[in-house]
Design goal:
This protein has a 9-stranded mixed β-sheet with strand order 14-13-12-11-7-10-9-8-15, covered by helices on one side. It has a 6-stranded parallel β-sheet with strand order 3-2-1-4-5-6, sandwiched between helices. The protein is globular. α1 crosses α9 and α8 packs across α10. By secondary structure, the chain is an alpha/beta fold.
């Protein structure tokens, strides 16, 4: 019997990555799409041959008994839609970030627990084949005691010119809540999911409101008069096992053209660097660099959705647990609080 699914929010993340992958699964029927922009929702429904279109997620939930609700809306709507879907009896996969703040995340988790349904968050980096391989190597002890990690996700010229990414009221923040949460989640997962204790963060707004900023890879048509988030953020996080992680992320910065995405994880028996992935260690008294070979290609979005469907059918926990996404949100909230106060803050 096919699971019945609906996607709420039909912007680019749904159009390019979520909806096409549901259509690839033979055991899932995508029965409806929903968006407050009716014209966009109808266009997407025609393109992907989805029968039902709604502009109100509550009406959708009243009309259909759904197994999966996939929330692809702007951040401010994640909590309300997810809670309503869980209370209706659906399992929920919500795009990152989980919500606008820790309190909303806790409300979503409480709703999932009460309804006895699964809740996961779209941290698709965990489903990249190379990261899955690194996770296995780290769990096998190749790095030993992991004590430090660093991740970067920087853009030269990549302020979003669509949606509400640039508005704190709608998104909660800028590149840290957009890109940085991916880095934080991936590093925490690879490190074994230690919990954050304190955060020291700084945010900067140097480009978002300026008329003289020249486009590079991305157009420069964002709404400068509405821009009230950071365009670069940096964070230092102390973890409950004594390890630390650092994160740097930007939408705009004077770096080499393009985007710079890399990471480093250090243990007392070895280290990992990425782009390309290499493992650094020593053998028989000599330093060695090991490059994994023949890691298969794969679409992490498809793998993520396929995994969630399997978890529903087999009644097992998803790889991305909602409680882990909550810890990522604690760090994001801590970055913005620390930047406002100018000091390190406790997050638990």
């Amino acid at each position: 019997m096919k699971l019945k699914a609906a996607v709420v929010g039909t912007g680019w993340i749904a159009r390019d990555y979520h909806i096409p992958n549901y259509k690839k699964l033979g055991d899932v029927e995508l029965v409806a799409v929903c968006d407050i922009d009716q014209e966009r929702a109808e266009t997407i429904a025609r393109e992907f041959e989805v029968e039902h279109v709604y502009t109100d997620h509550r009406r959708l939930l009243e009309k259909h008994k759904l197994d999966i609700v996939d929330v692809c809306t702007p951040n401010y709507a994640h909590c309300e839609i997810s809670v309503d879907a869980l209370e209706s009896g659906a399992n929920v996969i919500c795009e990152k970030p989980m919500a606008m703040n820790v309190q909303e995340c806790e409300g979503m988790i409480a709703a999932a627990d009460k309804a006895g349904r699964l809740l996961t968050v779209g941290f698709h980096f965990r489903f990249m084949p190379v990261m899955e391989q690194l996770k296995r190597l780290i769990e096998d002890g190749m790095l030993g005691d992991v004590y430090y990690s660093r991740g970067l996700y920087l853009r030269r010229s990549g302020i979003p010119g669509w949606g509400v990414f640039h508005m704190k009221e709608k998104s909660g923040g800028g590149p840290f809540i957009d890109l940085g949460v991916h880095v934080v989640d991936l590093l925490l997962w690879l490190m074994g999911n230690p919990k954050p204790v304190t955060v020291s963060g700084c945010t900067f707004q140097k480009f978002g409101k300026r008329e003289d900023v020249v486009g590079c890879e991305w157009p420069t048509d964002w709404k400068r008069d509405e821009f009230d988030v950071e365009d670069l953020a940096a964070a230092f996080v102390r973890l409950d096992n004594g390890a630390v992680l650092t994160v740097e992320t930007s939408w705009a910065s004077y770096i080499e053209p393009g985007s710079s995405s890399t990471m480093m994880i250090l243990g007392d028996q070895g280290g990992v660097s990425a782009s390309p992935v290499k493992i650094h260690s020593q053998m028989s008294g000599a330093h060695v660099d090991i490059t994994p070979q023949f890691i298969p290609e794969g679409d992490p979005y498809l793998a993520e959705i396929r995994h969630f469907v399997d978890c529903i059918k087999q009644n097992r926990e998803p790889r991305v647990k909602a409680e882990q996404a909550l810890e990522v949100q604690r760090i994001a909230d801590g970055v913005y609080e620390s930047s406002r106060k100018g000091c390190e803050v406790k997050v638990r």
